[in-house]
Amino acid sequence: xxICVDWFDPGTRAGxxxxxxxxxxxxxxxxxxxxxxxxDRDLGAEECYSRVRCGTWNNWNSQxxxxxxxxxxxxxxxxxxxFRRVQPETIYLNSMFSLFGAIVPLLSHRxxxxxxxxxxxxxxxxxxxxxxxxxxxxxPWLTFLRMSGIASRVxxxxxxxxxxxxxxGLFGTSTTIRVVxxxxxxxxxxxxVAQKVPGKLRLSFAGRVHPVKNLLxxxxxxxxxxxxxxxxxxxxxxxxxxxxxxxxxxxxxxGNVTVKFSGAVSNENVLWFVADSDFMVLPTVGENFGHAIFxxxxxxxxxxxxxxxxxxxxxxxxxxxxxxxSQPDQFRAVLERMGQMLSLIHISEP
Length: 350
Description:
The chain is of the alpha/beta class. The chain has 14 helices and 14 strands. The strands form 2 sheets. An 8-stranded mixed β-sheet has the order 3-4-2-1-5-6-7-8. It has a 6-stranded parallel β-sheet with strand order 11-10-9-12-13-14, sandwiched between helices. Helix 9 runs parallel beside helix 10. The protein is globular, with a radius of gyration of 21 Å.
C-alpha cells in the first residue's frame, strides 16, 4: 500500500491527518507492507526535517518506508517513481485537494496500472464549512472528478456515516464508500484527576491557529469571564492574518484573563500541556474526527466544543459539553459554571 500525504511524522503542524496515517501504520504494519510518499518539511516550515534523510527513502520505525520528497522531486515525477518502485496494490490518498497528494496521483496512475485500486480519505474536506473556504478552487476539481468518471472508479474511505453522506451528496448514491472509523492513539494507562480550584479556570486550546479551529470565537467569549482565567494555545500559526486578529482580541481582554501561545509542539508534548489544564476548549466549525478532543478525554480532561464534530451528547456522558456555535451565551454560561466548580469529579464521575 502506497500512502500519499503532504505531511508525515516527524511533522506535527498539520495535526490530525498526520496522526491518522501514523496510527494506521502502527495498527496494521504486521499485515500490510506500507510505503509513504510525503513532503520534506512540516506545514509552513522553510527548513527540511532534521531527523530524517530528505530527498530519499527512509526506514520508519521498521514499520514503513518513507520518501521525504523535495518539492522539485514532486514536480519532476516523485509519484511516478514511487509507483514504479513500490508497485502498490492500493494507493491511499489522504486528501481531496492536495496537488501532489491527490490530484497528480488521480490523473496519472492509470498510465501505469489501471488495476491498482485507489482509496481517497476526504478527512473532513467535504464538509460544507470546509468547502466554503476557497470554494472557487475546490468546486471545479470536484466537478471534474464527477464528470470524468474518476469518482466512480475509486473507493472513498469515510470515517463516519455523516462523511459518507457528504460523499454521496457530491458524487452520487452509486459511489463506492467504505465507512471505517478513525484510528486514535491508545489512551494513557493511568489518569490523575486534576485539582480544580473554585474561582480559577485553566483552559487549553489544542489546534492550528486557523479560522476552522475558531480560536477568535473563544477569545471573544473570554471577554466576559469573571473568574481568574488562564488559556494555553497549543498549535502552529497557519493563518497569519487570523493570528493577528487573535492578538488584537487578546490585547483587549480584561486583566483577569491571561493567554499564552505555546506554538507548535510534538504530539507527546501536546498531551502534557492539555493534562495541565482543567478543561480543553475547541469551538471548531468542523472536524472529521478530532484527535485533540479524543486525547483530552483519554487524559480525563473534560472538553467544551461546538456541535459540528463526531463527539456529541458529552454532558449526558459527563465528559463535557457540545454546544451550538450560533449561541455564544450558552458557551459563556458554561465557562462561568466551569470557573466555579469545586472539582472535575462533577464531570468525570456519574
